């Protein structure tokens, strides 16, 4: 644990050396918005305007994360720091700082025409680190609401492990990867008009992908029944061959 904490603290320094001193501001908190930034509507990224990122348009969200070597067979042999950037064109890029000070693109992904991405946050796993992408369906989509995507480092490369309707990643089993809570139905509060989930489809990580476990009323998502179902899927997965083709929850 001490090694992990020290490594995360060193991330600022490593990124600063690899991509210039300006990049160190990413981990120092958000600077006060200038009049120009407020006029532009603001973004959630705390980085200086003069930092030259190799992206197609204005950045909306930036996070950094660390890949630790050899964690549960993730395919990495060295400690590596990454920078994930989401821009206004709907493109996600994950960069690795190179020895010459440049940012090398390790992975890229674009949003669909019916979804607008607007925020990134870290995927909650040290074993398979990455990013979660938050978005919202536009008027041309079959239905409204929020959307979620997740990209993780699995078996030596970044992969899309989930892309679909609104979901959350919560570790209730104690395994190195969190469970996936996919919200399948919702209700509406008559007084406030706010919506809330009423049913949830739960997935657990088996091998190199998420496997569906159970669909259940939202209030029962932490019940013993769910934990028992997760362990059954996990045990069954140990006897199955590793899939040759990558699949995602639908």
Amino-to-carboxy terminus distance: 35 Å
What level of helicity do the residues show?
10-25%
Q: What does the largest sheet look like?
A: 4 strands, antiparallel
Class from secondary-structure proportions: alpha+beta
Average pLDDT, all residues = 76
Approximately what portion of the residues adopt beta-strand conformation?
A: 35-45%
Provide the succession of SSEs: HHEEEEEEEEEEEEH
List how many beta strands DSSP finds.
12
Order of strands, main sheet, comes to 1-2-3-4
Our Rg estimate from Cα atoms comes to 19 Å
Notes on the structure:
It is built from 3 helices and 12 strands; from the N terminus they run ααββββββββββββα. With 250 residues, the chain is of the alpha+beta class. It has a domain at 166-250. A 4-stranded antiparallel sheet has the order 1-2-3-4, with helices on one face. A 4-stranded antiparallel sheet has the order 5-6-7-8, with no helix packed on it. It has a 4-stranded antiparallel sheet with strand order 9-10-11-12, with helices on one face. The relative contact order is 0.09.
């Amino acid at each position: 644990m001490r090694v992990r904490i020290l490594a995360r603290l060193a991330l600022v320094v490593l990124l600063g050396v690899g991509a210039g001193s300006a990049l160190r501001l990413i981990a120092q908190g958000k600077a006060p918005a200038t009049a120009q930034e407020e006029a532009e509507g603001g973004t959630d990224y705390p980085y200086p305007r003069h930092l030259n990122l190799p992206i197609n348009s204005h950045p909306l969200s930036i996070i950094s994360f660390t890949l630790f070597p050899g964690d549960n067979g993730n395919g990495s042999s060295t400690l590596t720091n990454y920078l994930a950037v989401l821009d206004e064109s709907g493109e996600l890029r994950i960069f690795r700082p190179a020895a010459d000070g440049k940012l090398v693109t390790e992975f890229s992904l674009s949003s669909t025409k019916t979804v607008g991405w607007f925020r990134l946050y870290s995927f909650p796993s040290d074993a398979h680190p990455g990013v979660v992408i938050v978005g919202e369906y536009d008027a041309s989509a079959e239905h409204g609401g929020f959307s979620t995507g997740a990209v993780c480092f699995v078996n030596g490369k970044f992969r899309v492990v989930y892309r679909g309707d609104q979901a959350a990643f919560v570790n209730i089993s104690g395994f190195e990867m969190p469970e996936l809570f996919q919200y399948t139905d919702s209700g509406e509060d008559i007084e406030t008009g706010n919506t809330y989930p009423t049913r949830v489809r739960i997935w657990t990580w088996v091998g190199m992908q998420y496997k569906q476990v159970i669909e259940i009323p939202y209030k029962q998502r932490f019940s013993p029944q769910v934990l028992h179902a997760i362990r059954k899927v996990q045990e069954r997965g140990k006897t199955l061959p590793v899939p040759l083709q990558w699949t995602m929850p639908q």
